[in-house]
Design goal:
By secondary structure, the chain is mainly alpha-helical. Helix content is 59%, strand content 4%. Strand 2 and strand 3 form a beta hairpin.
Length: 184
Amino acid sequence: MKTILKPTSDQHPDWASVYIKHVPDDGKVLDFLAEGLKEVVALVQPLTDEAWNYRYAEDKWTIKEMLVHLMDAERVFTYRGLSAARGDKTSLPGFDHNAYVPVSRANKRMGDDILAEYQALRAATIAFFQNLDEEALNTIGEAKDQPCSARGMVYMIAGHERHHLQILRERYINIAQKRKYDFS
């Protein structure tokens, strides 16, 4: 896949570094996205219906809610990248990811349906970023009064997913296994 170098600090919001730091500096962010999807699928596809609805604490999201959150964020970040790449100077609004989760109705869905949507979304995301030239990748837009570029947004998507994969492993899968929760 296409090489997309890591964004400079002026190509993404200040707070995005917490996610971008999880992505290697080799420019293979699109490969990283493809591998991230495979990791998510491998972790959650074998889960029982009961396990899909597991939350490690009362006020935390279920696995279904986490995956739908990842898709919501991927859509928002991709739109921000699209807007910047097309030279749109509109300052885009922020989004309250915590407000999105309850109204997503993720827990009423089947896990397989969520995974199918995730796979389709990721294919579209990769195709979009794969086809941007350097000028489009570097064009700076604005979201929530912060700079954003397509280059910055693709790295945010990849790093955000990596952040949640770590949480999924440590706080869902590992804790559940220690509690002898049936994850198979």
